[in-house]
TrEMBL record:
<dbReference type="InterPro" id="IPR015421">
    <property type="entry name" value="PyrdxlP-dep_Trfase_major"/>
</dbReference>
<dbReference type="GO" id="GO:0030170">
    <property type="term" value="F:pyridoxal phosphate binding"/>
</dbReference>
<comment type="similarity">
    <text>Belongs to the class-I pyridoxal-phosphate-dependent aminotransferase family.</text>
</comment>
<dbReference type="InterPro" id="IPR004838">
    <property type="entry name" value="NHTrfase_class1_PyrdxlP-BS"/>
</dbReference>
<dbReference type="InterPro" id="IPR015422">
    <property type="entry name" value="PyrdxlP-dep_Trfase_small"/>
</dbReference>
<dbReference type="Pfam" id="PF00155">
    <property type="entry name" value="Aminotran_1_2"/>
</dbReference>
<dbReference type="GO" id="GO:0008483">
    <property type="term" value="F:transaminase activity"/>
</dbReference>
<feature type="domain" description="Aminotransferase class I/classII large">
    <location>
        <begin position="33"/>
        <end position="386"/>
    </location>
</feature>
<dbReference type="InterPro" id="IPR050596">
    <property type="entry name" value="AspAT/PAT-like"/>
</dbReference>
<keyword id="KW-0032">Aminotransferase</keyword>
<dbReference type="InterPro" id="IPR004839">
    <property type="entry name" value="Aminotransferase_I/II_large"/>
</dbReference>
<keyword id="KW-0663">Pyridoxal phosphate</keyword>
<dbReference type="InterPro" id="IPR015424">
    <property type="entry name" value="PyrdxlP-dep_Trfase"/>
</dbReference>
<protein>
    <recommendedName>
        <fullName>Aminotransferase</fullName>
        <ecNumber>2.6.1.-</ecNumber>
    </recommendedName>
</protein>
<dbReference type="GO" id="GO:0006520">
    <property type="term" value="P:amino acid metabolic process"/>
</dbReference>
<keyword id="KW-0808">Transferase</keyword>
Length: 396
């Protein structure tokens, strides 16, 4: 039988991350000592009290469906977290628990966008934003965050990108892949543009807890009641509590939007996994000291590795203020070592230096590579040394 797949999946851009990861695995299975810097998840285990709470919930018989928008007890903890961290008040009807932040975003685009509606996506972007917008019939409109502006977009760029089809803009601070963090003033200026043009703000705050250098994370929603009205916050426990595999995220904002998302969830996921929701209650209600420990470990690695990375000839790198990625511009290094483009340079780094990094092309930024420092300091130091020798050896 000849299979005819739907146009919407044929149009999906294949993940560049997967291609590199597959090649790295193949080399590893052949006995090569590959160092993988592609990880998009913290390298710490989920704290034990969260695991214990999940197991206990199962032993107590909490193994059935929950409401589609999530357990009321979990929504209560999420509302308390918003109050404590951002001073924001959300009613339970303004919160939906989703199967990971990714599925929260997916559901949001599905309920928001009509065919041809535009969503402004700053470049460099997290790989799933454009694909999710397209899957919902929307059109991604890109605004380039320039390296000289720390990969941030300006209010002028945002204004210029707005048309009468603009529905929303995505703000991801701290950012994957750059680690960039917007200040409160910068957010306010972007927020004013959105208020003036009635553009919804989708604020992806999944890396909120991973901020360095004494900087503070600000949610655009906390800057004024008007901005809170205009914003849907996306967040979750994946990165903050090292719970990527549990698949629990959430969205908070306008009641009508949350209600539509809940209706859609009731026909797609039914509810996020019950056990994982119980674990997430413990994540927010229990001790938070491991969050600080993880943050400190990441910051320590960042400071050591960043200094070594920028010494590699042809590498420039804006120092990240959050998340756990470095996003150096390596265009010059690629040219000086005789490669046509950074994709080929990244391929050679893997095949010859045995270091797996993600080419920036997948993030809309073809002069960069993304390195994750969610791995041990030993391996990170070894990986950067290998990259440095590779570049020096091949310099023309
Ligand atoms: C910017 C950004 N948003 C959302 C997500 C998705 O998080 P989750 O694992 O909760 O689906 C990720 C995960 O890599 C991310 O980097």
């Amino acid at each position: 039988m000849e299979i005819q797949l739907a146009q919407r999946v044929i149009a999906l851009t294949p993940s560049t991350t997967l291609a590199i990861t597959a090649k790295a695995k193949e080399l590893k299975s052949q006995g090569h000592d590959v160092i993988g810097l592609g990880a998009g998840e913290p390298d710490f285990n989920t704290p034990q009290h969260i695991i214990d709470a999940a197991v206990q919930s199962m032993n107590e018989g909490h193994t059935k469906y929950t409401p589609s928008a999530g357990l009321p007890a979990l929504k209560k903890e999420i509302a308390a977290k918003f109050k404590k961290d951002q001073g924001l008040d959300y009613d339970p009807s303004e919160i939906i628990v989703t199967s990971g932040a990714k599925h929260g975003l997916y559901t949001l685009f599905q309920v928001l966008l009509n065919e041809g509606d535009e969503v402004i996506i700053p470049i460099p972007y997290w790989v799933s934003y454009p694909e999710q917008v397209k899957l919902a019939g929307g059109v991604p409109v890109y605004a380039v965050g320039k390296e000289e502006n720390e990969y941030k977009i300006t209010p002028e760029q945002l204004s210029e990108s707005i048309t009468d089809r603009t529905k929303a803009v995505i703000i991801n601070s701290p950012s994957n892949p750059t680690g960039m963090l917007y200040s409160a003033d910068e957010l306010k200026a972007l927020g004013d543009v959105c208020l003036n043009h009635n553009v919804l703000i989708i604020s992806d705050e999944i890396y909120e807890k991973l901020v360095y250098g004494g900087h503070k994370h600000t949610s655009i929603a906390e800057l004024s009641p008007e901005l809170k009205e205009q914003t849907i916050i996306i967040n979750g426990v994946s990165k903050s509590h090292s719970m990527t595999g549990w698949r629990i995220g959430y969205a908070a904002g306008n009641k009508e939007i949350i209600k539509a998302m809940t209706n859609l969830a009731s026909h797609s996921t039914s509810n996020p996994t019950t056990t994982a929701q119980y674990g997430s209650i413990a994540a927010y209600a229990g001790p938070q000291d491991m969050l600080a420990e993880m943050r400190e470990a990441f910051e320590h690695r960042l400071n050591i590795i960043y200094d070594k990375l920028i010494k590699i000839p042809g590498f420039t790198c804006v120092k990240p203020q959050g998340a756990f990625y470095l996003f150096p511009n390596v265009q010059k290094a690629a040219e000086q070592t005789g490669f046509e483009n950074v994709d080929d340079f990244a391929k050679a780094l893997l095949e010859e230096a045995m270091v797996a990094v993600i080419p920036g092309s997948g993030f809309g930024s073809p002069e960069n590579i993304r390195l994750s420092y969610a791995t041990s300091l030993d391996l990170l130091e070894k990986a950067v040394e290998r990259m440095h020798s590779f570049v020096e050896k091949n310099m023309k």
